[in-house]
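Why this split exists: single-chain examples teach little about how molecules sit against one another. For that reason, every record in the complexes split bundles all components of an assembly together and asks for one structure covering all of them. Below is a record exactly as it appears in the raw files.
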Amino acid sequence: MISLPLEHIFILACILFMIGFVGVIARKNTLFILMSLEVMLNAVGIAFIGAGSVWEQADGQVMFILILTLAAAEVALGLALLIRLQRRFQSLDIDKLNRLRG
Amino acid sequence: MSSTTIIPLELLFYLAGFIAIVASFKVVMGKHAVHSLLYLIVSLLAVAVCFYFMGAPFAAGLEVIVYAGAILVLFVFAVMMFGLGKDEEKHAPQTSGLTIWFGPSALALALLCELIYIINSVEQHNVTAINHISPKQVGSLLYGPYLLAVEIASFLLLAGLVAGYHFAKPDGQKHSNTIDKIGENQ
Amino acid sequence: MTTNLSMLAWLPFYPLISFFILILLGKRLSWFMASVVSVGAVSLSAISAFWLVQQLAISDQQVITVQLWQWFSLGNSQVNFTLYLDGLSAVMISVVTGVGALIHLYAAGYMKTDENFSRFMAYMNLFIVAMLLLVLGDNLVLLYLGWEGVGLCSFLLIGFWYQDKNNALAARKAFIVTRIGDTAMAIALFMLFNSLGEFNINHLTELAAVKWQVGDQQVFWIALLLLGGAVGKSAQLPLQTWLPDAMAGPTPVSALIHAATMVTAGVYLIARMHGLFLLAPEVMTYVAWIGALTLLLAGFAALAQTDIKRVLAYSTMSQIGYMMLALGAGAWSEGIFHLMTHAFFKALLFLTAGSVILALHHQQNIFKMGGLVKKLPIETTLFAIGLICLIALPGTSGFYSKEAIIASLWTSPTAGPIFWWCAILGALLTSVYSCRLFFLTFLGNSRASSGTHIDNKTDPKIEVNTDFSAIMRWPLYLLAVLALLGGLFSTMLDQQLAIIFANTSLDTTVAEEFEPHWLHIVAIATPFIGIVFSWFYFADYRQTSGINHDAAFAEKNSRLTSFCLHGLGFDWLYQKLFINPYCFIAKLNRKDIFDQIIMTSRWYVDLWRSALIANQNGSLRWYAASLGIAVIFLLGVALL
């Protein structure tokens, strides 16, 4: 098979992670924030798979499965909350949720 | 062993990675929700290709079936059925413009540089001769040492299910009435 | 023996108990009860004092000491609350309690109609306590306690009628100016303790004689600072500006505090610390100079005054200048003797002036008095008696004491002929202003009226109130007797004081050995010359003919007169030199720079507060971004 330097895999993961991070911080629409979160989770998954592959163990993939599970639950809940947000404020602007200010 | 065909297989890996990155960019910077979701699906599919080239076909399959095929489809359905993607112009009047993107980009770039520096500073260069890990290996791990983790993951899913149902219940129920009344009085 | 001790121990405390009673029960006591308590307490002290003085005279022991309790110990020395009675203290307590009791009795009548009578008598009693502690203390700390106490009481009493702002300002001025002197004295105390390690006066004197040679630098500074303290309390140059303004207080206060007792505290201090002063002859010369200059300054100022009490205040200043002159010349006993006689006649003068003021319904301007010989004959006689003692005509007590001082000046090693001439000039001035005062106040035509005209034909006269109760008359009679016959005390005094001031001879090789014959003759003749001069110069004032020279009685506004009227410009000088710059700096510092420096810590905390509040803005994206920033920071730290 092919051989890849582990650094490149990690760098790919980091880049995707950063893109997702930028999306979380910069977008106001909560839906887009959730999507960016998915991107970040995905990036983490890449990192785990790469690491597992280097050590020739399946643990990386097991970790990836758990991340997947987590993402599923998170998306379900996130969308439900999004729906509530929409009903309450008639908008999806996350800056409307700022009553816990100091 | 690297292949000696006309197109080296590593190149495909890098190409898939590049597609994933571009698609992610378009996810983050998009204006329409559904378009961004579709770009996200493209990104996930590209990442699945990367998985395959990393010697994890099972993970690649799962990525396509579960992640792209179930979770994101849920996303799309929710967006379409609850009309969450409709009010774009109202919600996101300031998504364009350098001022919005400058700060977060700088932050992300700084973090990226640090991480790359850290990654490169490790002396060992693990050049992976990519090993093919079969689904059977993954399965035996799941039913072996990680059994407890699987069970707990199922708890998590149950919790997500219940909470998702509860939160997304339509109005007209007793509980939601008072809360929404408080919301209206604001 | 033990009765002596217990008498001495209780002596200062009768007025203290009376003070507490009057303060606590205050308005609930009737005038009679309050008078009995206060005057009785001081009289008790006076009786104890006289008894103790007699015991001291007849017994062969020279001092009586009683330690009341142990106060504190500092280093190796003990500072105890000990009362020490020797000849010098004996003179002082006799004067303080004796004259004090008479003045209290007078004050009970004078302040009868005042609604704060109990408070007044309470403060007077407190003053007596403080003064007694001052003169009976055997160590400098107890003396300083009494010193501060009399300053406090002076402040309280000058500003007794505090509703009038001027009185409060006068009280404040007195306190602040004497404070400057007190600070000098405190520094002297610190220096003394630093070099000798003792506060007990007798021990101090012994140690100082051993440690320092005559003319040593350290003892020079200590003596100079002690002089500073004395100058403040006794209203001498340069801290004399408070005394004329202190006349804003009630007349008994002026009599007690600012004539007889408190202003003599400085004289007492120097006399008590004579051991130190003998080691610093230059400072003794300074003392003599201060005394001489003050007596001349006050004499000139008194010539131009229009308020009867201010004339007497400047006169007091002048006479204390005589006492300082005596001490500076090394004539310790003579100075103390003059202190005693001065207390008698000055108290007499002040109290009589108080009667006159009351009779004319609180009129104090002498240009609005006159012709009181017929209406107030007794007061006229008493005032005349006081004045002739002041002028020191032969036969009066003032004569003995003043002549004794003047006689000692020519041959003194620290003073000399020039001081003698100053004293003579001062005596001349004394007689001139005294005659002026007498003529204006009592002789001539009555000018008391409510209007500004002095024409006594058309304006209605103010009724002169001649009705005085006995308690306001008898103390005056007693004081008059003492003033006239006080000279008889001199032999007894010399005996007592000689013991204390033994071994105090100065180095006489420097002095003039030759004393001219005509010294004494000139000295005795001077007051008469002054009287004759005034008789003709102030003839207008004493005429009783129908002609009223309006011009003669108009308050003269020539530059020289107003310069003298305002105390030879010292108030103006101090205003320009000290007060204006200080106010200027205070205005500059309106924002209080030290406060600002402290407020920088507040500013710093405020800065953090604003930053943290801005950080908690409730926005989720901001929180996520701060997570990112934190990670960057931590990774950066880890990488470095």
